[in-house]
What we know:
The structure is a single chain. The protein is mainly β. It is built from no helices and eleven strands. It has strands at about 5, 10-15, 20-25, 35-40, 45-50, 60, 70-75, 80-85, 90-100, 115, 120-124. Strands 2, 4, 5, 6, 9, 10 and 11 form a seven-stranded mixed β-sheet that branches. Strands 1-3-8-7 form a four-stranded antiparallel β-sheet, with no helix packed on it. Strand 4 (about 35-40) and strand 5 form a beta hairpin.
Amino acid sequence: xxxxxxxxxxxxxxxxxxxxxxxxxxxTFSSYYMGWFRQAPGKEREFVAAISWSGASTxxxxxxxxxxxxxxxxxxxxxxxxxxxxxxxxxxxxxxAADKSGSYYFSAVVYDYWGQGTQxxxxx
Length: 124
């Protein structure tokens, strides 16, 4: 069982930055592939970024590539999402998720554990 708690969301102007954190419980954090997803009102949950167990491999949605950076600190059992050059279309609730397999990391259905989400609002 893994519990995930996101933090760091808020209101920011377009062009600004935010850093999201997701703290995991338990001593098996390094055995989980970690992902960030987001969901805007009236839209489906969509993949944002993912990072492999050691942090050696990262993947991004085209919409955030070059602006967002995912990282992890296994000693602190925490995954981060640094978001730069934010746009109004980045407004959403952001969720972190954990999956042991690492397969189909871009698909929400494979993830076993989810956080409660943190709101990110980007004003124009």
